[in-house]
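For the sake of transparency, this paper describes our internal protein records without simplification. The remainder of this section carries one protein's record, kept here as part of the documentation:
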Amino acid sequence: MQVEFREYNQFDLWIWLEFSTVPSPAEKQYVEEVFDSWFFLGKLGGFNAENLQVQETGLELSYMDYDEDAAESSLMALMHNMADFEYEGTWGRCWIDLGTTDAIALDILINALKQLSKEFVNIERLLIGGKNEDWPIPEKRESPSDYDDN
């Protein structure tokens, strides 16, 4: 799976997937479950790079002291909104407002989609941001409610 970054606005971001064939209903379900799970974790603040205490500790985690005060004092990193996934031919896309979530969220999504592509759904390309010449995006929306909130 090839990953490309284009013009990036975390508050108005389109994510595009190009499949090798038109995805089946089961393949669409896999993709949508990845995005829904990812968004739900983001909505709960799961991608807060300011509080990565376990990651920063290293390999020896036995009896690790977790600093609750440090966790509480970190800034919130919450995703705000995501539209339903859409499909057209061999393309799929999703609009998302990443809000204040940290960039680690994109790494986690890329990692999950790479594995999904190896195991279940052949994804040729992942485009993050920008426009897709094959499938125009709607002009500026009137309000955030123009997209469904999951």
In short: Helices lie at 25-43, 53-57, 68-73, 104-119. The two ends are 27 Å apart (CA to CA).
